């Protein structure tokens, strides 16, 4: 764990809403990947119908050949191969999601110091009072992507590989890993496990305050300008003053 200078932590509600928005973005990407996988799997499964005749001939041969008796083994192997063939696009989509999640976090934090969610709620990731280095961004993204999407996607891949028991165990590990990642944010400094691993902190970006100050200044200038205009109008309407005779 890396120490971090004492800074004013961002309000919890803004961090939670920013985190939810980033998860929504990851969810949209996941939906796009799964829709693409669905269509690719549909194309691949349509070709299986054409293989049914070949499978039937194989089963007939296994049944009538001398010493034959491997029909059940042949059926099981064929069905397993076909399932793997159809499920492969989903496996690739689930494997790609944590990688894209990781790359998104690294690029956003390294280049701008904030993700889309944090930008929407005026939050910024800092390391030593400055934008995180590439190494800190990578460490932070690795912990975040693993806890939020990586282990869960692995559980789904195992389920697609028909490893139901192992999938349940990994899913339970994903739940434990998520809470181990998130709960430290409730402690001192409000820094989650990713922040503690990378030596970063999430602080208010001050953008809202600057906009409010500029708006207030603009309002004062507008009032002063309007008052000056009214004074000039009143001056033009005053009757001329003649000197006494």
UniProtKB/TrEMBL annotation:
Coiled-coil regions in this chain?
none
> Which positions fall inside the RDD domain?
10-153
Membrane topology, from the record = Multi-pass membrane protein
Write out the entry's keywords from A to Z: Membrane, Transmembrane, Transmembrane helix
Segments spanning the bilayer are: 16-41, 87-109, 141-162, 168-186
Question: Do you know which InterPro entries this protein is assigned to?
Answer: RDD
Q: Where in the cell is it found?
A: Membrane
> One Pfam family from the UniProt entry?
RDD
Name of the protein this chain belongs to: RDD domain-containing protein
- In its UniProt entry, the species of origin is given as Actinocorallia longicatena
């Amino acid at each position: 764990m890396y120490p971090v200078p004492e800074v004013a932590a961002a309000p919890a509600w803004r961090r939670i809403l920013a985190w939810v928005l980033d998860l929504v973005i990851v969810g949209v990407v996941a939906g796009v990947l799964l829709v693409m996988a669905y269509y690719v799997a549909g194309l691949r499964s349509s070709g299986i119908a054409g293989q049914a005749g070949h499978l039937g001939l194989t089963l007939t041969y296994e049944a009538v050949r001398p010493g034959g008796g491997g029909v059940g083994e042949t059926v099981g192997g064929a069905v397993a191969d076909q399932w793997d063939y159809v499920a492969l696009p989903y496996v690739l989509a689930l494997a790609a999601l944590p990688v894209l999640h990781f790359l998104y976090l690294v690029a956003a934090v390294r280049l701008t110091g904030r993700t889309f969610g944090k930008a929407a709620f005026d939050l910024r990731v800092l390391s030593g009072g400055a934008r995180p280095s590439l190494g800190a961004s990578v460490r932070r993204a690795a912990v975040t992507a693993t806890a939020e999407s990586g282990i869960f996607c692995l559980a789904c891949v195992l389920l697609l590989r028909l490893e139901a028991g192992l999938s349940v165990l990994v899913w339970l590990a994903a739940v434990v890993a998520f809470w181990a990642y998130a709960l430290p944010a409730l402690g001192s400094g409000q820094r989650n496990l990713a922040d503690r691993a990378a030596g970063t902190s999430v602080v208010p970006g001050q953008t809202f305050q600057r906009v409010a100050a500029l708006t207030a200044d603009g309002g004062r200038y507008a009032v002063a300008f309007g008052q000056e205009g009214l004074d000039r109008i009143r001056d033009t309407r005053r009757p001329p003053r003649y000197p006494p005779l």
